Task: structure prediction
Amino acid sequence: MTSAELLDHGLAELGLDLAAETRAKLLAYAALIAKWNKVYNLTAIRTEAEIVTLHLLDSLTVLPHIDVPRIADIGSGAGLPGIVLAIVRPELEVHTVDTVQKKATFMRQAGIELGLKNLTAHHVRVEQWQSEERFPAVISRAFSDISDFVALTRHLLVPGGRWLAMKGVYPHDELSHLPAEVKLVEAIPLSLPGAGDTHRHLIVLKAD
Result:
């Protein structure tokens, strides 16, 4: 199955009807990751087919739950899920943040090549980043621990803002170590096309 066929099958399973131009941009982004990966080691996932399934489609699983005008993607790496969201939602203002220079450089170049005027990539430690305007939501697919994610990004959220943590199996232990004022709003099971019984959850949190 080609990358385009994998993407189309996955989008159908997710119930997402994307324009041909948007699908083409997603595939162009996958090709960019594969190309840069040969030199810069952006991700351990190597083939375009795996990139489509384990990066693009995985990022798209959260799309129905993104209902804000601005979002920051923390520890974005190669731009996941931030660049995917920026491609599919051109009206969404997306900021991606990573501490690794080569990854921030890649994200900036991808934004230029894909014509993503709604994307800004930042090379900075998140705890040192002071955005001019706070965000209604911050998201991460890469943080290993939810408590760290919450602690390092609290200054970026507007009052009443939400943390969106993309996780695998339901993180019982991590949630048990959250500060008392941080509450679980929702734990949303996600289904990843082409990944069999792989477990995915979107953990939504807010502070009192």
DSSP finds seven helices and seven strands in the chain. The mean pLDDT is 94.
